[in-house]
Amino acid sequence: MKINLMCRGTLNQSIALVGFAILTTACSNSPLHNSTENASDWAVIQPYHHPIAGMGSSTFFGSITVPENQERIVASRALILALQNFMLSVVKPKLDADGNIPVKSEWLSDSAPLGLAMLSSYNNTYPDLKLAPAQYQLVYEGQYDLTDGKFRYKIAARLFQRGAIGNITPVRDDRYAGQFFVQRLATEISQQLHNEAGK
Amino acid sequence: MSTRTQLISIWLTSFGLAVLICETLFLRTTSDGIPFLLSDDRLIIYKSLAIIYGPNLGAIIAAVYTKPFSGDPDTRLAIVGFRVAVVVTLFYNFLLLYLVSLPHWSQSDSVEVVLERAKTIGVSLAFLVAPINAYFFGVKAKEISPIGSANTR
Predict the structure, then answer these.
(1) Which of A92, A148, A195, B113 is the one with CA 20 to 30 A from B13?
(2) What is the ipTM score, two decimals?
(3) Which residue of B41, B109, B114 is in closest CB contact with A163?
(4) What is the pTM of this model?
């Protein structure tokens, strides 16, 4: 699956970092911001269906059962919980009155440091695009949609770096494989979708 | 060695040491193997050093080509003034070097914060060295001999 990746990554630094991400998002012409409805744009595609009387949830192979009119809540909660599991929260857009992310709006997370375990896992997976020793921070952004009976999520990962006492700067996108980080969140969202649907 | 040469030596040595101190930060790492600074940080470091040392060194270098003030300085004043100038310039430059070298001893603040602080303190205390620079570099120079006599150059 081709996934769009964009690389640009104490409290003041986090604010500056998120501000930078917002700014570059606004200026970016990446596929995330295009209106193409190509399946390859989506990091997660999960079909869903509404409960039908007399039919079990296993009737639709690979599809999850979602109560009618609950799709938006399930999709948004799955995303928010997945981000929370990575110590992240949504900073853009403002959540609606129910605490959900509006459908089709572009969302942006705050930043979270990349743990040493995750870093070494990445370096083992991509030895050719190994990340040099530094402190790394990750910011996710994306969009989700519910059309055609599918939960669909676009995800982009932005990696930032800094020395122990240095300034935070974006990592150039040709220096790392962002797919690794996008796939982490995609897997977590899928897991959360199944959890939410199972409630 | 003329008064100017001695004073400019202090300034250039101090600037060179500040660059050296900052550059050695790039060679250091934490116990986790994380470098203190990445190459992108050079921009902020050199920008800060230019602001800290630029006005003084710039004025001194400019005075080589032009004398903004006319008139011969008083001989007695030149001798006493030169001693004061050396002490004050050394104090000012040691203070700057201490402030710039702080990240070597403590990593609680980012290098940007440390240099910003050095910049503010340097600018605030510039009144100590600005008149001295104006006097010794802005008027006709005097040579001070080791025994204290002065000759107009």
Answers:
(1) B113
(2) 0.73
(3) B41
(4) 0.71
